[in-house]
Structures
1.
Amino acid sequence: MQKIVIIGNGISGVTAARHIRKKSDAELLIISDETPYFFSRTALMYVFMGHMRKQDIKPYEDWFWKKNRIDLLQDYVSGIKASDSELSLQSGKKIKFDKLIIATGSKPNKFGWPGQDLKGVQGLYSMQDLDNLTKRADEIQRAVIVGGGLIGVELAEMLVSRGIEVVFLVRENRFWGSVLPVEEGNLISNHIQKHHIDLRFNTELDQIFGDENGVVNEIITKDGERISCQFVGLTAGVSPNVEWLKNSAINIDRGIVVNQYFETNLPNIYAIGDCAQFQVPVEGRKNIEQVWYTGRIMGETLAATLTGNRKAYQPGPWFNSAKFFDIEYQTYGNVNANRAANELDFYWQHPTKEIAIHLVWEKSNEIFIGINVFGLRMRHELFNQWLKTKVHIDEVMANLRIANFDPEFYKRYENEILDSFNLQTGKNIRLLKQKWWQKVLG
Amino acid sequence: MKLVKNIGLVIFLIGLGIFTVLPFIGGVKLSDEMMRNILTESELNNLENRFEKEIIDIDFTSSYGFGSAVKGIYDDVNEEFRANKQWDKVMHTSPKEFSLKLAKVAAYGPVKDNKFAFFLLSFGLAILGAFIFILTDLKLKGPPGIKNDGIYHDPNTSRGWIGMITAAWLIGFYLLLYIAPYGIVNMIFVVEPVKWLFVEGGEASQWFLYGFMYTISMTIMGVRMIIKYRHNKYQIVRTISVVFFQFVFAFLLVEILPLFDLPGKDLKNAWPLDYSFLFDWNVKGLIENGTFGRFVFVWSILLSVIIVPTLVYFYGKRWYCSWVCGCGGLAETVGDPFRQLSNKKLWSWKMERWMIHLVLVFAIIMTIFTGYHTYNEIYGGPEMQDKHILFGFSAYNIREVYGFFIGTIFAGVIGTGFYPILGNRSWCRFGCPLAAYMGIVQRFKSRFRITTNGGQCISCGNCSTYCEQGIDVRAYAQKGQNIVRASCVGCGVCSAVCPRGVLKLENGPEKGRFGNEGPIVLGNDGFQLNV
Ligand SMILES: Cc1cc2nc3c(=O)[nH]c(=O)nc-3n(C[C@H](O)[C@H](O)[C@H](O)COP(=O)(O)OP(=O)(O)OC[C@H]3O[C@@H](n4cnc5c(N)ncnc54)[C@H](O)[C@@H]3O)c2cc1C
Ligand code: SF4
Ligand code: SF4
C-alpha cells in the first residue's frame, strides 16, 4: 500500500489527509511537532481571553484520527533525504514515504532588531507562543506591539482583555495600510483607539532593551522615543517556515517553490499552505497565500490529485474576513489599498455607527470587481457567483438587500446606501425584491 | 465603576444571605388549640395521641425539624393502617402538604411578624444589588460586541468553586421546594406581601414563592442578557419576548384568572411539557368551569396538535423554546452564564437522542393511561368510576412515577440545579418531551435552518462552545453545510458569537435547506459544489 506522509498538522495538512482518506486507502501519517492534535490557529486568541479552553479549539475529537486511520506522530522533521524517500526526525527515527506533503506553515517575521530574542519578546503564531504569553501575562503592565496587521490587532485585543496597557506601533499612516483603503483604515484606527489603545502611526521599532535577567524592559523607536514595557509582540507579518529545508535538495525561494499542482522540483514531494510559493501565481493573486481558506483549498485540491483526479490550484474569487475588536470585516474580490487608474469606487459609511461598505468596479465596462464591508455581513455564495460571472455594478447594487447576511431583525441600510450611490454616480438604481434570488439559490 | 459593581455584588450577597438563613430564624410550636382548629375530625382521631406526645407545645428550632416530625408521624400512622388493612382509615392528603400547612400555622418569630421587612431585606436587597451589578456592565464591558472575556477563567462559569456553590444552593433549594416545602415556610412568608397585591391578606404557597423567584430572576437576568448581547438585535427581541411570556402568562395570568373564578392555567404551556393535561383533576376542573374552562381545554388540544407543529414548520422550534417557553426562558436568562458547559462530544449526542425520545414515549404512554382514567371518571357510568387500571398498570402509579422522576427530578433538580455543571439546557436537550416532538418536526419538515456563509468559517469553535444544546455547529460550518438539527432551539447565540459572521438563522424554502452536501467548501473552483 502506498504511504503518504504529511509534515505539519495545520489546516492544510489535515485537510489534505481528510480528503485523501475519503477517496483512498493509502497509509496516512501526519508528523507535526507543535501539538499532538490539530487545532485551530485562528482561535488562539480566544483561549487567552478565556472564551474557550484548549480542548475547545480542536475541530475534531481525539478519536477521529484513529477512526479514519490517520496516524499522528508528534516529532520534528529535521531532514529530508529525497533520494531515499526518507525523513529523519529529531527523535532519531527514520520514516520512509512514497509521497510527501510539506505543510509546515509560517513563522513570525523578525527583522533582526537588536534585542529581538530577549525574554518577553515574541510573535503570536504557535501554541508555545500562547503558553509563553499566558505565563507572563500577570507581569505585564504595558506591552508594545510592532506591526499593524491582523495578528497585531488580535494580540492587542488579547492584551487589553487582561487589563494590559498597549502601545501599538504601525509603520503606515493608518492601521493595515498595505491592505485597507484610507477610509477603512481610518474607521478601524478610530475603533482601535476607542478601546484605549495607544496607536502610533508612522512609527517603527528600532531596538529592544532588556534588564539584567534578559527580560525586556524598554524599546526605542526609530524616532528615538523610549517606551518602557514588559512585553513586545512582533506581528510584522509571517514568512514560510522553510528554514529547516535549507540543506535539502528541495527548491526553496521565500517558500517552497511549487507549480500549480503543488509539485516541488522533486518527484512525489508536494507543498501546500502557508509554506508554499507558486512559481507562477494564479492570475490576480499573490505567489504566497497565508490564510486559512487558501490552506484549506490547497489541501482539498492536492488530495484530489493524489487520489487520481489531477487538479490544478484553482481558487475561486478571493475572499477573506477578520474582526477588529468589535467590527466585523468581510471582503470579496479585490479592493486595493489604493484604487487603480482603471477602477471606480463607491464608499459609504454610517454617519454615527461603525458600519461601512466599499465597492469597486471597472471604469470602462462597469463590471464589479470587489467589495469591503464593515459591520455588515454579505452572502459569500452570491458574491462568488457575481465575481465569477462578471456582473455589472448596477446588478450588485440593486440586489444589496438580498446579498445581506445580517441576523434577523438587524436594521438594514440598503436604502441609505443606494441613495448615496445614486447621488454619487448619477444613476437611478432601485432595490430588487427578494423573490428571484430565492428561486435561484433557495 | 468597578467599585460600584462590587458594591452591587455585596448588596446582592447580603440579600441572598438573608434569604438563605430565613429557614433558621424563629421557631415552630404547635399548640393544642391550633391542632384542633386545623385538623379534620378523622385526622384528629388518627394523629392526636402521637401529636400530644411528640409535637404539641414542643419548641422546634426550625420548620424543617417540625415538618419532618409531623410527616414522620403521619407516615407511620398511615403505614399502620395499611398493615392492618384498615383501608377506610388511610389518609389521602399529601404528607408534605399536610406538614407544610401545620408548619405555616405553628411558625412564630420575627419573619412571620415582619413579612414585608424581611421581604425588603432578602428579595429587596438581592434585586437591588443584582441590578447595580448588572447595569455597571454597560460601562465596564465597553462598546457593544461579543462579551465572553474571562468566562473560562471565572470560577463561577467554568465549573470552579463558585459554580459548585451555586449548584449546591440551587439543588438544595429545589429539593426543599419539591420534597420538604415545610422547611422553607419563612421563605414563603416573605413573598406573601406580593401575593397581597392580588388577594388581600392572601396566603402564599411554595409555588407562589417559586413562581415569583422564577419570574424575578428571569427579568433581572433578562436585562443582563440584553446588555451582554446588545450588539445583536435578535437576542434583544427574543429576550424581551421570553421574559414577557413568563411575566404575563406564567405569572400574572395564573394569579389573576382565579380572581375571576377562572382556572389559573398557564396558557402557553403545551402538552407534553404540560404532562398533567389529561389528569382527572385538571380536566374536571376545566370542564366544570364553564365556557372559559372549556375554551382552555380546547385551546390546549389545538396548541399541541395544530399550533405547535405549524409554527415549527414555519419558524423552527425556536418560536417556542427560545421565545415563549418558561423552562427555555430561565435557561436563556439565568442560565446564560453557563451555556458553554454543555457537552459537545459525539457520545452525548447519541445519548441525547435515546433519552429525549424515551421520555417522549413515556409521556405519551402516561398520557394514555391518565386519559383512560379521566375518561372513565367523567363519561364512564357508575361501574367505571375510578377505573384506573389498564393492562395491569395503575394510571395513578404511572403518573406519580412520571411526575417524580421526570417532572421533579429531571426538569427541576437536574434541569436547573445542575446549570453550573451540565450547562443551562440539560432538561431541554435530554428530557423535554415537547422538545422531542418539535425536534422531529424541525428535522424533517420545517423551513428553518442555520445557513453557513459559504467558505468563511475559520473553525475557531466559538459557535460550538456557546451552543447550549451541545451541537457541534463548527462541524457543519467548516464544511459549508447548513445546520439542521432536531435539538437546535434557535437561540441564535452561535450566530451572535461567531467572529466571522458565518451563521444566520433563517426560514426559507425546504428545498436545499441542508445547503452544500458535498465535501468541498465554497471558494474552491476546482470542484463542482452541490449548492
Ligand atoms: C493568531 C493567528 C490568527 C489567524 N487568523 C486568521 C484568520 O482569521 N483568517 C485566516 O484566514 N487566517 C488566519 N491566520 C492564518 C492561518 O492561521 C494560517 O494561514 C494557517 O493556519 C496556515 O495553515 P498551515 O496548515 O499552512 O500551517 P500551520 O497551521 O502553521 O501548520 C504547520 C504545522 O507544522 C509544524 N511544523 C513546521 N515545521 C515542522 C517540522 N520540520 N517538523 C514537524 N512539524 C513541523 C508546525 O509546528 C505547525 O504545527 C491566523 C494566523 C494566526 C497565527
Ligand atoms: S445551534 Fe445555535 S441557535 Fe441552535 S441551539 Fe445551538 S447555539 Fe442556539
Ligand atoms: S462558524 Fe463562526 S464561530 Fe463557528 S467555527 Fe466557524 S468561524 Fe468559528
Note: Chain B touches chain A through 60 residues (CB under 8 Å).
2.
Amino acid sequence: MPKYRSRSGKFVVSGVSSDAHTWNLVFLQLMLEERGHEVVNLGACPPDDEVVAACVHERPDALVVSTVNGHGHMDGERLVRTLRAHPDLAELRAVIGGKLGVDGAADRHVDALVAAGYDAVFASEHGLEEFADFLRELRPRRRAPAEPVA
Amino acid sequence: MSGPGTAGAGRFAAHVRRARQSGSLVVQPRMGFAGARRMREGLRAVRDVAAPTAGTVTVDSYTRVGEYARALEALRSGAELNGFPLVAHGARRTREVLDGVASQDFPVQVRHGSALAGRLVATACAAGADATEGGPVSYCLPYGRVPLRDSVRAWARCCELIAARAEPMHLETFGGGMLGQLCPPSMLVALSVLEALFFREHGVRSLSLSYAQQTHPGQDLEALAALHRLAAERLEGGPDGGPDWHVVLYTFMGVFPRSAAGALRLLEESARLAVRGGAARLVVKTPAEAHRIPTLDENVAALEFAAAVASDERERIRARTRAGLRPAPAGGPYGVYEEAALLVDCVLEQAPTVGEALLRAFATGLLDVPYCLHPDNANRARAVLDPWGVLRWADPGRVPLPPRTRRAVSADAAVGSRQLLDMLGFNERRFDVEDVLGRRLADGAAA
Ligand code: B12
C-alpha cells in the first residue's frame, strides 16, 4: 500500500487478439487495484473491436495492453491503429508492455509501436519499475459522476 | 503400465511402446517454426538425436485462434510467427514437410491449443500427422474466450475425425497442463482422466494422459502414481477392452528459471521424475524458455540432455535394485489420488455423457481452475504454495474434497500482486539461486 493517497483512476487492462496468456493480466489487475484504481480486465484474446468498444464505454484514464506470446509487435500495432482511428479515442492514453517479439530482443519493436500510437512501451527488464513511474505521473481525470442509466 | 489395446493403435503409440520395452523414455520438444523449410530442418534434427524421440509441430497463435488470414499474411510478409501456421500452409505443404522425415521410428505430433479446432485437426489428419493434442476443457479454458459449450461440441467432432482416419491417429489430453502453474495436482489428474474418457466416448482408440511437473518433486511423484492408477481403473475393460494409453510428463510449464544452469536443473528434475514416476514420454523445455522461442539447436540440446539424465536415472534405479533397496513408495501423504478420484466421480454423476457432465461441473463450480479468467470458469477456488513448494487448496470454492484434505485447507486465501509473483516464481527462484548467489559473490570479490 502506498503511503499517500492520490485520486484513483480507472484502467482497462487487456491482452491482444491472438494472445492467450493471462497470469500477466491477473497480476496487472491486482497491482493496479492495490494502488486504489478501478480495473476492467478484458482477459485473453479480445478481438480489436471489443477493446475499442470497452474503451469507448468505460472512458478509462488509460488502456494497459499486456502481451507475451510474441505476436504483440503485430497485434499490438494493429490494435492501436484501430483505436486511434476512432474519433473518441484519439487522445486516450494507451500503453503496451510484455514480451513483444519472439527473439527476446527487448527494444526491437518499441519505436514502431510508439509510432503506431502508444504513449509508452514497457518491454525491458525494468518494465514494471518504469510503469510504476508512469502511474505516479499520471493525473487521473476528475470525472463527472456517472450518468444514471435510464 | 500402459493400457491393453496394442493392435492397430498406430505408429505413435507403437513407437512409445517399443521405447518403453527397451527401457527408454521417449523425449519430445515443443518446437514450431513459421517456414516450411525450417520446420522440416527442425524435425530432421530432432529425428537425428541419439535417443528415442517424437517430432513436434507447434502451431502459431493466429492459427490457434482461427485467424488463418492473418497467419497467411504474416507468412507472405515474412513477419515473425511463434509457430507453424498449419492451416495457412495447408495439408499438401504440411505433408511435404513430413514426407520422408516422419516414420515408424519418428512419429510426428501436431500441438496447438485451439478450442474450435475442426479445421486445424482436419488439416493435420489430411497431412498425415501421427498424433495431435487437445481436449474440450484443456484447449479451451487456458486458450482464450471461446464458450466451453462450443469447445465441447468442436472437440467431439475432432475426436470423430481422428477416430475415422484410415491410418490410426493418437490423441493426447492437455488436461495435466492447465495454465501451466498453480493448479492443484488432483485437479490436473482429474481433468486428464475426464478428457481421456471424453476421447474414448467419441471413438478415439489411442490416447495419452498428461501431467505437468509442478513445484514439489514428492507431490509430483504421487500425482503420477495417482494418474496411472486412476487411468487404469477408469479406462481399461468394458466391451471394447478400452483404448491404448500411456502417460506423458511435461517439464514445468510455468515461469522458468532465467539462468541456463537453473533451467537445465529444472529440466533434469523433470527427466528424473518421468523415469521414477513411470511416464512413457517427456515433453521438454529449453534454457530459452524464460526469454524467447527456442532455436533448433537449443531444442536438440535439451532433448539430448533430458535423454542422458533419464538413462542415468534408470541406472540409479537398477543399482538400487541390485543392492536390494526397494524403490521409495510413491507416497500418499498429499492425498492426490483420493481427491482426483472423488472429483472424477462427482463430475461423471452430473450427466450421462462426459461432455455434458463437464459443462455442468464447470457451470456449478465443481470443477474450478484457480485464477483462470475464462468466462465459463467459476474462478472462486484458490491455491497456494506452502514454504516447501507443495501446492495446496487455499479455498476450494465448490470443488469437492475428501474430509482428510478438506481439513488441511488454509483459510487465508487473499493473495496480493507481490505474493502472486512470488508463487509463480517459486521454481525460478529455487533453480536460479546458485546463479544469483554466484553473481553476488563474484561482484563482492570484484569490489
Ligand atoms: C505459463 C505460460 C503459458 C501458459 C499460459 C496460461 C495462461 N492462460 O496464462 C500456456 C501453457 C497455456 C502457454 C501457452 C502458450 N505460450 Co506460453 N508461456 C508461459 C510461461 C511459462 C510463463 C508466463 C507467465 O505466466 N508468467 C507470469 C507473468 C506474471 O509474467 P509475464 O507474463 O512474463 O509478465 C511479466 C512481464 O512480462 C511484465 N509485463 C507483461 N505485460 C506487461 C504490460 C505492461 C504495461 C508492463 C508494464 C509490464 C508487463 O510484467 C509481468 C510481471 O513481471 C512463459 C515463459 C516464462 N516466462 O517462463 C511462456 C511464453 C510466454 N509462452 C510462449 C508461447 C509462444 C506460447 C504459445 C504460443 C505456445 C508456443 N508456441 O510455444 C501458447 C500461447 C497461445 C496463444 N494463443 O497465445 C513464449 C513467448 C515467446 C516470445 N514472446 O518470444 C514464452 C516466452 C515461452 C517460450 N520461450 O517459448 N504459455
Note: The domain at 17-60+69-126 of chain A is CATH 3.40.50.280 (Rossmann fold).
3.
Amino acid sequence: MIVAKRKPFEEIKEMLKGYKKVLNVGCGTCVAVCLAGGEKEVDVLNIELDMAGKLDENPIELGAMTIERQCDREYLEALDPLVDDYDAILSMACGAGIQFLAERYPHKPIFPAVDTTFIGVNQGVGWYEERCRSCGSCVLGLTGGICPVTMCAKGLYNGPCGGTNKGSCEIDKDQPCAWYLIYERLSRQGRLDNILKFSPATDWQNQIPRTLIQPGYKKSEEV
Amino acid sequence: MKSGSNLEKVLEAGHFAFTGELGPPRGTNAEEVRKKAQFLKGNVDSVNITDNQTAVVRMSSWAASLILISEGLEPNFQMVCRDRNRLAMQSDILGAYAHGIKNMLCLSGDHQKFGDHPQGLGVFDIDSMQLINMVKEMRDEGKFLGGADIEDPPKIFIGAASNPFAEPVDFRVHRLAKKIAAGADFIQTQCIYNMDRFRIFMKQAVDMGLTEKCYILAGVTPMKSVGMARYMANSVPGMDVPDSLIKRLKDAGKGKIAEEGIKFALEQIEEFKEMEGVAGVHLMAIEWEHKVPEIAERAGVLPRPTF
Ligand code: SF4
Ligand code: SF4
C-alpha cells in the first residue's frame, strides 16, 4: 500500500490561513489502512482545526467527506455537488489522489494534509516499512525477494558494498544490510549463482511521468 | 599494455608495487596538494586521489590529479558512484584521460549520510561493478555505455577495491571475482589488520586463479594511536581490527605507540612481499603523508623502478 503521514498541524493551519470554508476529503483506501487519511483521521483533524479556529477567534467552517478512492474518477464524482460550497479543499489522500482531485476542480485551491511517504508493508498496528520504489523493472526474482533498489541504502545491483557491518548496513546498526540478507536467503535456497553473475547498468524506467495501458485496453475517449 | 601507466608498467615488469594516497583539500589551496605530493614523489608508483572521501566535499579528484601530474607524479583518479550519473562519469573520464590521467579506482562511495551534506541526493545511477565494466567497454570496445562510438577512447588502467573482511565474508572472494570479470586490472584492498583473515582470502583468490588475471595490492594504514585503532574497530563499517593489535599498541607505552603502529605496518609489508598472489602494497597514510618517505625507506621498497 501507499503509506503517508499526516503533516504537522501548524503546517496545515498555515496553508489554510484566510479560508473560511474548507472541505476536508479523506480517502478510504491506502491512507485509511495506514491510519493517516481515512474517515477517522478526517474527523480528528477537523476537530483540531475547529478548536484552533475558535481559540484564534478566526473560525473555519469545515466539511468532511471520505470517498473510497481519490485516485479513481468513479468515486470523485460524489464530491461534485459539494465542492462549490467551499473556498478550499484539504485532501488527506496520497499525492496521486490529491492531484486527481485538483485536476477535477481546477478552480479550487487544493491543499495536502499528508506527506506521501512510501510504498510499504504493515509490520504491526501503526508500523509500516518501505519495500518498493516502483522502479519499473522488478529484479526480486534474482535477489531472493529482497529489493536492492529500496532496501540497500545505495541501491546497488551488484552488492554487497564494503561497508557491510556485521550484517548491518553502513548507514545504521539498526538497518540490516539488504545484500547480506539477499546473500543469506539465496545461499539457503542454493541459488547463489544468481548474484555471482554481473548485473548490467539499469535502464531506469522512472525518469519521466509514466502511463500504463494494460494489454487489451485503450485510453477512454471521453477523458 | 592496456594504458601504459607507470603503475601498469611496474606491475607488468613484475616489480612489487607501492602506491600511496592523497586527500585533496577542503578548499582551493593547490599549494597544499603540492606539499603533500612532495612527500610521495619518488617513494610510490602512483597516488590515489580520493573523491569526496567519507562524503565530505573536497577539491575534485580529477582536479587534484592534474596538480599531481604537474608535479611529476602519477595519479590514480578515484571515482565514486554517489555523486554523478553515467553521463557525468563518462565525460569526466574523457576529460581526465585527455589531461593525462591513466589510472582509475572505481568505487561505490560512502553513503552521503556520513558526510557534510547528509541531506543530499545519492546518485548511484550505476554501481561500482557497472562502473568498472563501463570503463572497460570505453577502453576496449571504444563504446559509451549508451552504445555510441567514442572517438579516441580513453586507455585507462582500471582499479577496484575489495574488502576481504566485511560480511558476508564467504562471499567476498566471489565479489572480487565478479569485479575482475567486469574488467578490473588491479585491486586495492581495504586496510588490513586481521592478517589471519587476509591469508585465507588470498589463498582463496589464488586457488580460484584470480591472481593470474588481476594484480592485488594489499591495503596498509599504520595506526597512529590507540584511539585511532579503537575508532577503526568500532566506528568504521567493514573494518576488522583484532583486539590483539589494540593491546600491542597499548603495551608499547606512551610516546611509542605511533612507532609501534609503523612497526606493525612494516611487518605486514614484509609478509606481503612473500605472500602468494600479492602484487604490491597500497599505503594509505592519510594526513600522515610526511611519514611516507620513512615508511618506504624502512620497508625496503626504494628506489622505485623508473621506465
Ligand atoms: S526491484 Fe524493487 S523497486 Fe523495483 S519493482 Fe521490484 S520491489 Fe519495486
Ligand atoms: S551495507 Fe549493504 S545495504 Fe548498506 S549500502 Fe552497502 S550493500 Fe547496501
Note: Residues A 152-154, 156, 159-161, 163-164, 169-170, 177-179 surround iron/sulfur cluster (ligand 2) (CB under 6 Å).
4.
Amino acid sequence: MPSYIELPAYEIVKRIKDQELMAEDYIASLYERIKKVEKDIHAYITLTEDLALKKAREIDKKVKQREKTGRLCGVGIAIKDNICTRGIRTTCASHMLEDFVPPYDATVISRIKDEDGVIMGKANMDEFAMGSSTEFSYFGPTHNPWDLGRVPGGSSGGSAAAVASGMATLALGSDTGGSIRCPASFCSVVGLKPTYGLVSRFGLIAYANSLEQIGPITKDVRDCALLLSCIASHDPLDNTSVDRPQEDYTKYLIDDVDGMKLGVVKEFFGEGTQDSVEKGVLEAITKLEELGSDHQEISLKSLQYALPSYYIIAMSEASSNLARYDGLRYGYRIPNKSYDWSTVYSKNRRFGFGFEVKRRIILGTFALSTGYYDEYYLKAQKIRTLIKRDFDMAFKKFDVLIGPTMPILPFKIGEKVQDPLKMYMCDVDSVPANLAGIPSISIPCGFSKGLPIGFQIMAPPFREDLLLRVAFSFQKNFPVSAKLRSYE
Amino acid sequence: MVTILVERKKTISKEQIESIAWLARIEISKKELELFSKQLNDILAYFSKIDEVNTKSIPPSYHVLDLVNVLRKDEVKPSLSKDIFQIVPQTKGKFVKAPRMA
Amino acid sequence: MSKIKSVEIKIGLEVHCQLTNLKTKLFCSCSSDYREKEPNTLICPICMGMPGTLPVLNEKALEDAIMVAIALNSKISERMLFFRKNYFYPDMPKNFQISQYDKAGGVPLALGGYIQINGKKVRIRRIQLEEDPGKLSYEGTIESSTYALVDYNRAGIALIEIVTEPDMETPKEARLFLEKLRSILEHLGISNGSLEGSMRCDANISLRGGKRVEIKNISSFKEVERALNFEITRQKSLIERGIAVGQETRHWDEVRRITISLRTKEEEQDYRYFPEPDLVPVIISKDQIKKIEQSMPELPDERRKRFIEQYHLSPQTAEILTHSKAMADFFEESAKLYDKPREISNWLTVEFLSYLHDRGIEIDELTLSPKHLVDMLKLIDEGIISRKMARSVLQDMLLTGKMPDAIVKEKGLEKILDREYVRRIVEKIFKENPQAVKDAIVDKKAINYLMGQLMKATEGKIDPKMAGEIIRERLSKLSKFATS
Ligand SMILES: [Zn+2]
C-alpha cells in the first residue's frame, strides 16, 4: 500500500483532484495508522472517523462530478481541542468541558469546511492550553513520536504529534505563549504563529485573549503556507481580526534569501539554553548564510522581562476568561446537593479544573486584585510596550530575527510537572512574539541524540511572507529527514 | 479585600490564597493550600524580576493592534437558543436551575 | 421627630437605563425584545458567554449613548475603552460584566455634565455603556427558596449608566431628577421608561456628619423617594440616639419597604477591573458628535421654551408639561385638535396630573387619547355639559376610556337647555320655599339658597348662568306684584 500518510497536504490535494487517489482511501489509511500508533502516542481526545469518511466520500463524489473543490480537498486535519466544532465535543482537555458539544463552529472551522478539509478528530492539549508539555490534559499526556518517554511539547502537543506520526496530514494549533511552536519544535514539524489579528479567534476557547492566535502545524513549509492561506481572513465576529485582502501565501515560497538581513537575538541564547540546542540553531544560521543572507547579533534588553510579563498578563486574562465555567449553563456540575450557589460554583471549579489551571486562575486573580493591579498587570503591560519597541527597533535593522524555538530538547514525561516554574521557563524564547503580536515560525533544523531541534524566525507584523521565504529556502536546501516510525 | 504589602518582596500568605481562591470561586483543600503556597510564592518571587524595570513614563499595551471602532449593525440574527438550552445541566421548565441563593 | 433641613442631606444616584429602542443586545445580534417572552428563548452563544465567543459592539447603542451624553451636557471621550468588571453571580453568564471604568487607565463614554431641575444643576459624574445581567426568580423568597431560576433573555441588553454627583438634597429632588432624566431619554427616543425594569437605580445618601450609605436594588423611580425617605428616617434616629452611621451598602426591600444591611461576604467585592481584550477602543470624532447633535430631536428644556412662546403658557405650566414626554406629547396633540391651549393645559396639570400621581402612572399608560379630552372640552363649549359635570365625565373617561359623548348619553348628563322646563321647576321650588323667596326679594344674597335648591333638583345639569337668569326673572315678577 502506498504510504499516503507520509505525503504532504499539497500532494494529497493534487492527487485527489486528479482522481489518482480517492479521498476515502486516503482518510481510511490515516485511521488505520491511528489504530496502530494512537495507543502509544495519544494525540487525540476525540476521533471522528465516521464523519470524516462521510465527508471524504462527498468529496470524491464532487471530484468525480467535476464540481469545484476547495484548496484542502480531502486533506485530513487534526483540530486542537480548544477550537469549537459544531456537533463534535470540544473539551479543552478539561473535565469541566468533558461533555461540551458546541452548537457552533469556530470561524477557522467554517473556513476549513469551505475548503473541503476533513476533520480527523480533536487533538490533545494541555488543559485550557495552559502548559508546555501536554501533560496537563485531563485525558492523559501525549507522547513524543520521536521518543515515547518524552513530552511532545505543548500546549498543542496532540496536533504536532498527530502530524509527526502520520495520524493527520495537517493540524491546527493555538499559540498563546509558544503553544504551536514549542510542540512543532519538539516533534520536528513546522508550526506558525500568525501575527495577532490575522486569523479569527472566534470559536477559539480563550486562555489569554490579547496574546493568542490559531495557526498551522504541518509537515513542511509549503503545507504551512497552504493552510495559512485558508484560515487567514477577516472576521467581523472578532474585533481583533484585521481587515486586509485575502492572501495566497504559497506565492511567497521563494527559494531566495540572498542579501536578507538576519538578526540573531542574543537573549534567545540565555543561560538556560542547552548546548545541543544552541549548536543546532547556530548551524542553521550558518546554513542560511551559505544561501547568501547576512546575520548579525542583536541584543533586545527588554526580553529578559518577557517571561514574567507574559505569565502575569496570561494568568490575569485567564482568571477572567475562565470565570464563566461555573457549571450552570454548560459544563461540569457536581451532583445536586443542598449547597448555596457560591459553594456549588467553588466545588464545580475545584473538581472541574486541574491543578495548573487552578494555579493560574488564583495567581491571575491575585494579580488583578485591589492593591496589586499596578505592580503586576499594569506593569507587565508596560513592559510589553518596551518589548514591542525593541522589536520595532530591531526590524529597522533586520528583515527577520532568529533564535531557538525552545531552549531545551524534549524532556522526559513527568520531569517538570511537579515544578511549575521550571515548566514556565521552557517558554522563555517563544513568549516575546506573543507579547509583541508579531508572527513567528518554528521549523526543524536537525536532531541531537535522536531528539528534534527547531529554530524560530520572527518578522514584523503581517510579514508572514518573510517567514515563509526564509523557512522555505532553508527547508529546500537543508531538508531535515524525518522518517516516520512504525512503533513496533 | 486584600491589603497592600508593605515589604518589597512579593509573597502571598496562606490566608491571602484562601481569600483569593474564594474570590475566584475555587474550593481548595488543606493539602492543596500547602502545595499552592509553596509553588505560588516561588512563582511570585520570580515575577519580582519585573521590579527592576522603570516603566514610569511607559504607556501600557493593552492592545497590540491599532484597530479601533469595530461595530456591527443593530440587526437581529437568528440565535441558537434551543441548542444552547438543550445542554444546560439542570433546568426547571424553561428556566436554568441555579442552586439556592441564600 | 424633628424635620431634617434639606441642607444636611446629600444624595447621589447611579441610574441604569435600558436602551429600549434597540433591536438587538449590546454585544450580540439577539433580539432585545425580551419582555413577556418565554424564558431563555432570546439567547445566543455570545450573550450566554459560551466558550470561544466574542462580543461585537452594537453601533446604534453607541450612537444612542452619545446622544445621551450630548443631552446631559457631558464631555464625550475621544477614545473610550471597555473594561471587565469581574464578580460571580448566577445572573451573569460570563461571571464578568462588560462595562466601563474611570480608573486604572479606563476611559468611559463621557465625563461631567448636568441636568437642570427647577433651575438647579445636578452634576453628572460619568456616563457609560454596559450590559444587563439576566434575571433571577425564586419560588417563594430569596431566603427560603431551595433553588433559583435564571432567565438569560435579559442578559446582554444595552444599558447606559449615569452616575451623578451627590448634589440632590431631598428625596423629592432625587425623584424630580429621575423624572427629568426619563423625559430627556424619551424625547431622544432611546428609552421607554414605562417598560417594567427599564430604569433602575442605586442611591447613595449621607446626612451631615454621617458616612455615605449606598442603597441598592431600587427597581423603579417611584421606589427611590420611598427608599430615601426611609433611609433618612433611619439615619436620623441613629444620630438622635448618638449612634454613628457606618459606611455600608443596604438593599431596598420593596415589599417590606425598608432598607436592609447586607453584611455578608458578598459585600467584600473586589471587581478586578481590567481592559476588555476582546473589544478594541472606540474613537468618537468631533464630526460624529456634530452629526449626531444635528440629528437630535427637541429636548425637554427647548420644548419648554417653545411651549411658553407658541402656546403662551406660564413657565411653571410649561415646566410641568415637559417634565414628562408623554404629557408634553398629549398636550401638543390636543392643541392641534383644539385651539385653546391654556384650557387644555389647565385640565392636564390639575385633573389629569392628580389622577396620574395617585396611581403612579404616566399619561401614555391611560386608555385615553387627546381626542377624548378635546371632545370633552368641546361639549363644555357647546354648553352640553357644565364644567362641574365635565369633571365627572373626565373621571369616567379615565377609568373606562369611553368617549365623552357616550358617557354623557349613558348617564343622562346633558345639560338642561329647555327654559320652560326649568321655569316649571323654579315655580315648584318657590312654592315649597316661601320664606326663602321672601328673603331673596329683600336680600339679593339670599338668592343662593334658591340656586342651590334648583341645582339639587336638576342634579347639576343646569347651566348656572341660565339658572340665575330664570330665578331672577321670577323674583322680579314677584317683587313687581309685591310693590304694586
Ligand atoms: Zn445573544
Note: The longest strand of chain C covers residues 120-131.
